[in-house]
Automatic annotation (TrEMBL):
Function: Involved in DNA damage tolerance by regulating translesion synthesis (TLS) of templates carrying DNA damage lesions such as 8oxoG and abasic sites. May act by stimulating activity of DNA polymerases involved in TLS, such as PRIMPOL and polymerase delta (POLD1).
Assembly: Interacts with PCNA and POLD2. Interacts with SSBP1. Interacts with PRIMPOL; leading to enhance DNA polymerase activity of PRIMPOL. Interacts with POLH. Interacts with POLD1; leading to stimulate DNA polymerase activity of POLD1.
Pfam families, per database record: DUF525 (PF04379), YccV-like (PF08755)
Keywords for the protein's UniProt record, in alphabetical order: DNA damage, DNA repair, Mitochondrion, Nucleus, Phosphoprotein, Transit peptide
High-level lineage: Eukaryota, Metazoa, Chordata, Craniata, Vertebrata
Entry superkingdom: Eukaryota
GO cellular component: mitochondrial nucleoid; nucleus
GO MF assignments: DNA binding
Compartment(s) where it occurs, according to its Swiss-Prot or TrEMBL record: Mitochondrion matrix; Nucleus
Protein name: Polymerase delta-interacting protein 2
PANTHER family: F-BOX ONLY PROTEIN 3, POLYMERASE DELTA-INTERACTING PROTEIN 2
ApaG domain sequence ranges: 236-361
Length: 369
């Protein structure tokens, strides 16, 4: 797959100028190297610049145009079938359907007296949620090898349908994307995204805008798996120019050793909003269960990595899981980062709730079609 990706280049137009990704026409090539020159672009296209650079023009590359940028929407939602470039991670994708989430942004919370530490968080302010649009999307399989060091491409997991209460499985190339991370583009290709579910979920209709419409398969899949896909709450907080965004998902309940075990996955995105290079070294979690237990978890890095956040690669995104023997709980904590001079600082993880679906009739049993 990596060879296939490397033989295809990406190009989209901004303001009539071509912005290009180049790739080696050689088997075994591993990474896309960016190259572009264009006049000052409108603010909507500025986010793409981190992926596009004019230095070190590579030799022996092949350029292939795949689409033309559209003006990003400041208001309203993108429709099913909208093609896009991810403004942070740079992959190509397609919108399946939107989610309306409640965003709890502690950076814009109204000034309120600090509260004493409690099971819901650490000296937290009152934060009111506001509606924010996210999208369920498919990632182009050709781009997965080139973003895997910065964003997991198998992060959307489900409980497996068998007796092992801890067994999980993932749908590769399924993601959640915030509205502001969408850089929309159009393409004349009838199958512009390579993903095993693209043609199963979407049908090409040239007269439509965008020209890809939902098949009944997609609508049925969305309806049947809604409880285990639903994105409802998003939590965000910034400490010393490191922004942490957390999205929890309820996965369902399983029985183990004559007790009920409730499962959640949580997606975390770390973003360096400054130009200074920092590296994640440690995590420190506090997990409170409605049953009355309070667990502390410390460890090196996250998911076996200690990512570096720099101006060139400012973000890292991963997913993990937690289980409780109670139907609800809370999590909060800190990430410890290291500066180039060896000094350390702690970044707060915004507190978030772990809530189960009280009206759950049957536990999830894998992927429904």
């Amino acid at each position: 797959m990596a060879g296939c990706v490397a033989r295809r280049a990406v190009a989209v137009a901004v303001g009539g100028r071509c912005c290009c990704w180049w790739s080696r026409p050689l088997a075994g090539a591993r990474a896309l190297r960016p190259l572009a020159t264009f006049p000052p672009a409108p603010p909507a296209a500025a986010a793409a610049r981190r992926h596009l650079s004019s230095r070190n023009r590579p030799e022996g590359k092949v350029l292939e145009t795949v689409g033309v940028f559209e003006v990003p929407k400041q208001n309203g939602k993108y429709e099913t079938g909208q093609l896009f470039l991810h403004s942070v991670f740079g992959y190509r994708g397609v919108v399946l359907f939107p989610w309306q989430a409640r965003l709890y942004d502690r950076d814009v919370a109204s000034a309120a007296p600090e509260k004493a530490e409690n099971p819901a968080g650490h000296g937290s302010k009152e934060v009111k949620g506001k509606t924010h649009t996210y999208y369920q999307v498919l990632i182009d399989a050709r781009d997965c090898p080139h973003i895997s060091q910065r964003s997991q491409t198998e992060a959307v997991t489900f409980l497996a349908n068998h007796d092992d209460s801890r067994a999980l499985y993932a749908i590769p190339g399924l993601d959640y994307v915030s509205h502001e991370d969408i850089l929309p583009y159009t393409s004349t290709d009838q199958v512009p995204i390579q993903h095993e579910l693209f043609e199963r979920f979407l049908l090409y209709e040239q007269s439509k805008v965008p020209p890809f419409v939902a098949r009944e398969t997609l609508r049925a899949w969305q309806e049947k798996n809604h409880p285990w896909l639903e994105l409802s709450d998003v939590h965000r907080e910034t400490t010393e120019n490191i922004r942490v965004t957390v999205i929890p998902f309820y996965m369902g309940m399983r029985e183990a050793q004559n007790s009920h075990v409730y499962w959640w996955r949580y997606c975390i995105r770390l973003e360096n909003l400054d130009s200074d290079v920092v590296q994640l070294r440690e995590r420190h979690w506090r997990i409170f269960s409605l049953s009355g237990t309070l667990e502390t978890v410390r460890g090196r890095g996250v998911v076996g990595r200690e990512p570096v956040l720099s101006k060139e690669q400012p973000a890292f995104q991963y997913s993990s899981h937690v289980s409780l023997q109670a139907s609800s709980g809370h999590m909060w904590g800190t990430f410890r980062f290291e500066r180039p001079d060896g000094s350390h600082f702690d970044v707060r993880i915004p507190p978030f709730s772990l809530e189960s679906n009280k009206d759950e009739k049957t536990p999830p049993s894998g992927l429904h079609w």
